[in-house]
Known about the structure:
Elements: H1 4-18, H2 24-44, H3 49-56, H4 59-69, H5 89-100, H6 108-127, H7 133-159, H8 168-192
Amino acid sequence: MKTDDTLVRDYLAAVDRESAALPPAARQELLADLGEHIEVALAERPGGIREILREVGDPRTIATTALQELGHTPDTRAHKPRRRRSPAWLPILLLLVSDVLPYAGGFVLLDWLSVAIKITAMVMVCRSRHWSAPQKWIGLTLTVLVPVAMHIAWYFLFVAPDNTDVTETWRWTAVALVLVLTAVGSGWLWRTKRS
Length: 195
């Protein structure tokens, strides 16, 4: 169990850490004033150190108040809660769904929904902390850029000129290749993610 002296030292050390942004002279004055206040209170109420420290206040609050009294604005960015990271599996799943969705039916709405999901997944991968920048480029090249280029080439080579010589076998072979590329890229992203 900590002694009164140890508790006071730990408390003052916490105030010292929290008030590191104060000028050295102001910080020393603050610590001296707090130490004197704690000694006087302890002389009046021996053995009540924990209650006295609670009454004095939280070290962070004391440091913030001292900064404000000196005209400094505290750095609120350091105390903002961090935004939650999306799990690594979510953008990968969205990439896979966005490639399969257009083949689920002949609806134009599914095509547009697929594009929206693909863009969302790309943004999630780009903003994620699960992968480094080179890993993001490789993953998105395999799962998005190459498959989209293949879709565009397929359209301009066979669909737009109304080429009826292309058999269904070739069409589904191209679709299978796009899906395999997306699956390989998604698998690579999953394997290289950081915990």
